[in-house]
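Justification of resources, computational component.

The compute hours requested in this renewal are based largely on the per-chain cost of generating structure records like the one below. Each record pairs the submitted sequence with a full structure-token output. That output is archived, and it is also reused by downstream analysis tasks.
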Amino acid sequence: IVVKPQAALSLQMHRLRSEHWIVVSGIAQVTNGDRQFELNSNESTFIKPGRAHRLVNPGAVDLVMIEVQSGEYVGEDDIVRLSDIYGRVPVAR
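The structure output for this chain reads:
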């Protein structure tokens, strides 16, 4: 995964899969459940199913990450977006 400078992924969760994020280069600002912290090169975090998470690149260079998905189902339809700066969260009616 490459995250451009000052860009962010959705605050989201997955019901059935976990994710392991590993920083290859750059700085990652991570939300993992109720924790917020930074990761640098060669650092990682594990995200359990059902836990809200987000990835932000606060830096001036690309953030390069490896994401390993595991669990009983890893399809792209197992994404619940909670907040998104790109307007991809469905509006409640």
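The two ends are 33 Å apart (CA to CA). The beta strands are 2-3, 11-13, 17-25, 28-32, 35-39, 44-47, 53-56, 63-71, 80-83.
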